[in-house]
Amino acid sequence: VLCESLGDKLTGYLDHELDERATGEVEVHLRQCVTCSTRLERERRVRAAVRAQMTPLEAPKRLRGDVRRMLRAQLQWSGRRPARLPAWAATAAALVLGAIGGRRLGTWQASRGEASDAAAEVVASHVRSLEGTHLTDIASSEHHTVKPWFAGKLDFSAPVLDFAAAGFPLIGGRLDYVGERPVAALVYGTRQHVINLFVWPTRDSSADPSTASRRGYQAVHGASGGMVYWAVSDLNQPELSEFARLVTADLTRRSF
Amino acid sequence: VDPSTLARFGETVLPQPPIDFREVVILRDVQGLSYGEIAEVIGIPVGTVMSRLSRARQRLQRALPVEDYGRN
Questions:
Q1: What is the pLDDT of residues A167-178, one digit of tens each?
Q2: Of A41, A89, A212, B54, which shows the fewest CB atoms inside 10 Å?
């Protein structure tokens, strides 16, 4: 086999993408051709360099959630059963998004490693909600206004709790995602502080509140009455725990 | 290898080849897709994926100080 006739098979060989026959051909040739052996080794190093320098990209959770929701809506419309989104589709979506955004590759690496646990994820959502102009989708201190807004946007009835009397007035509500699940994000305020309360259903009947701290923010996690919640704020831990106690009590009361 | 050269790798070297080359390298070597999956995503034959990847890596090799990578 001449080097030319080998063509791009060296690349396929390196990536274990050739069938048995082609693999055999390449191996026979490699045993007798120093030039191609060297070429293979060089290509292997290029591949290693790329792998070492670049971090795999994941589509942002919010985007993945949106895509899934759109697919579901479309499939329901056409009367077909929802299909699973293949892994590469999210990759492709992310790639397209990155290309459209004109972002440089270097910045693509940022999102990995973060949000590996729920606490980090809700804190990231909290920070995001404060950064832009998207603290609330529906701004209202009336839970009678906020609760109906969630209807049809979530697959559960969002408990919109009223703690104004306890010093935590409602600011509004927002649709958010935690672990790719659409959740109700309720926004409360106390003095200059904002509290994000993420709520969604759970099978666990109840869980004692646990606290966490990420990136300088406090988070309290609990479950009651078939709902799990995360409260996140820059409030101090005792005050946030007091807020969480109210949440647990209210959720428990509702379940009876 | 000069570390600062490598640090600039993602920003300076990869965007230089045409988007077609960048695409296959990222999908294969970074995202870990198979040739078949890449073919499906981009909408080109599997053979074209292989040849494009081959050329893309050749370009990268010329542009990169890769000697220290992949040594066991």
A1: 999 999 999 988
A2: A41
Q: Does the beta carbon of B1 lie under 8 angstroms from any beta carbon of chain A?
A: no
Residue with tokens 């971090």: A55
Q: Judged by CB atoms within 8 Å, which residues 231-250 of A form the interface with B?
A: none
Whole-complex ipTM: 0.72
Alpha helices in chain A (DSSP H): 3-6, 9-14, 20-32, 34-53, 61-77, 87-101, 105-108, 118-131, 143-150, 237-254
Chain-centroid distance of CA A204 in Å reads 22
Say whether A56 and B23 touch across the interface (CB within 8 A). no
CB A189 within 8 A of CB A169: yes
Q: Which of A44-58, A123-137, B1-15 has the lowest mean pLDDT?
A: B1-15
Residues of B in contact with A55 (CB under 8 A): 30
**pTM of structure:** 0.45
Spell out the long-range contacts of A136-142 with Cβ–Cβ below 8 A and sequence spacing 24 or more. Answer: A136/A171, A136/A172, A136/A173, A136/A174, A136/A187, A137/A172, A137/A173, A137/A174, A137/A175, A138/A172, A138/A173, A138/A174, A139/A171, A139/A172, A140/A170, A140/A172, A140/A173, A141/A169, A141/A170, A141/A171, A141/A172, A142/A170
pLDDT value of position B36: 92
Closest CB to A11 among B37, B54, B67:
B54
Angle between helices B35-42 and A87-101 (to 10 degrees): 50
Distance CA A255, CA A253 (A): 5
Q: Please report the pLDDT score of residue A101 as a whole number.
A: 44
Per residue in A76-103, pLDDT (tens digit) is 555 544 455 555 666 666 665 555 444 3
